[in-house]
């Protein structure tokens, strides 16, 4: 957490959060990954290859688009959209996947595995595996494979094998369990490309670093466009990878308000929610100490959101720390509000944004009118919404099947 | 530190694994008693967790049956209390760190001491992350039993030296209970390394008892016992036959 004051007990922790709570069978490999990451993260050859791929393959830098119509319509702060949806494969996920896959290659690994919820991280991993000529297997909850069939097919087109996970609640957390188990059995040739800012050290740090390209760019772009930093940065939070990337380079700029938007599902105060920061308590799960939705016995709750990418019962440890330090604020948006935002941004700005991102948009729709016209919001559109069109239609009772 | 190590003094130790409340309290209590009466030296009682990342499908399914039965920590403690009315067979808990963390390490370890639970196997608490639990385990004399994996190269000495009670050596790559086939060479090499730095007893999980018994001090039976309970019918009769058979095989090697 380079941007925050160093008050951590060691490199693997963010205050009391973080750590490496993982079976012994993975400890050496985790340490190998950490060693490799620390060896290469400042290595000029590594950085050159990373930047080359980001700029010439993934289509970076992504636009910082001034949403003039939204701004006028909402009648408050100026709204800028950081267009991660314009990246190759259609989401911010590619930033991190390129970085981790380059580490994997340098470690001599020939096989990439990944978990995925909505499918965007799986698609990104399958894409880079194809590009690098690596074997690829993706673990995805059975329920998610059903609601994100298009992305399953994309992954298969890219040459990946998709495993529908039928254990537990058959969603993202179960896909993580399955991927961890598979990794433990194949560490000789396999690198686990973790998709969010979660899991044991060094994953939260790697994901932070590889996603920080979002805020690095947006900072330069807003300084060029407006001559000053934004007042507020808004991003959706599931595990928290796009949010940590959107926040990273602003963490030390205390006047910039950071807001993470969680999936409130049917309501933050209902049992059909994924609002970890608001409802969660400290626990230990998926290799990290962080905030989790869990019962008083310590059993992890089944969570709910219309968005497969956000229905994760935990959040990355750095977010838990940012909330504890009150450096970032976390709010919930319901399915209804997110679907309204999905339709609003499509009609107002001609952008079909991912339902995950529309949680952030929905909050901006509430926030902007309360701010002055000379104030600035940057909202990250973390992915494109093609994958969600069928879900939205279904939510609205529209039958779009042939 | 408990006297768990002493169980290994004069015999090859048999440790069956039973999931608490699978499929109900009475079956679990009776199964523990049956196993103890027929040769089990230590009982490893699985405390179900919603997301058992280190367990294979047989144990995962047993956990689901326990959840269907309404298992919670009070039920786990009730099971041990009922066993303690009749038997003082050594019991260890196998669970994930969030369970004691959420209950409070102090309270959890105190409860273990009250129930005469001798040790804890916690797969997601590698030695690097045991510092938060260890002071409470020490305070109440509960052994933290470490795991050594085939991928533990370079860590074995550290793990063995920190070991209390016994050390659990996994001979296969991946989650527990995925494969029951014994990787003999792997096991032999690991055992040699441990023995060179520590005299702590060594246990491995396998159903190939005769093959493993010459190498290690104790055998952990995971899937087989869980499967016998899952199959239903005359569970206690089947458990008795199984336990007697295992014990006989081990006795030959003792």
UniProtKB/TrEMBL annotation, chain A:
The modification N6-(pyridoxal phosphate)lysine is found at residue 93. It holds the Pfam family PALP. Residues 59-383 form the Tryptophan synthase beta chain-like PALP domain. Its EC number is 4.2.1.20. It comes from the Bacteria. Its cofactor is pyridoxal 5'-phosphate. InterPro entries: Trp_synth_b_CS (IPR006653), Trp_synth_beta (IPR006654), Trp_synth_beta/beta-like (IPR023026), TrpB-like_PALP (IPR001926), TrpB-like_PALP_sf (IPR036052). The keyword Lyase applies. GO terms for cellular component: cytoplasm. PANTHER family: TRYPTOPHAN SYNTHASE, TRYPTOPHAN SYNTHASE-RELATED. The beta subunit is responsible for the synthesis of L-tryptophan from indole and L-serine. NCBIfam families: trpB. Tetramer of two alpha and two beta chains. HAMAP family: Trp_synth_beta. This is Tryptophan synthase beta chain. The gene is trpB.
UniProtKB/TrEMBL annotation, chain B:
The keyword Repeat does not apply. Its EC number is 4.2.1.20. GO terms for cellular component: cytosol. It is an enzyme of class 4 (lyase). One of its GO terms (molecular function) is tryptophan synthase activity. Pathway: Amino-acid biosynthesis; L-tryptophan biosynthesis; L-tryptophan from chorismate: step 5/5. The active site is at residues 44, 55. Gene3D superfamilies: Aldolase class I (3.20.20.70). It catalyses: (1S,2R)-1-C-(indol-3-yl)glycerol 3-phosphate + L-serine = D-glyceraldehyde 3-phosphate + L-tryptophan + H2O. The keyword Cytoplasm does not apply. Keywords: Amino-acid biosynthesis, Aromatic amino acid biosynthesis, Lyase, Tryptophan biosynthesis. It comes from the Bacteria. Belongs to the TrpA family. The alpha subunit is responsible for the aldol cleavage of indoleglycerol phosphate to indole and glyceraldehyde 3-phosphate. Tetramer of two alpha and two beta chains. This is Tryptophan synthase alpha chain.
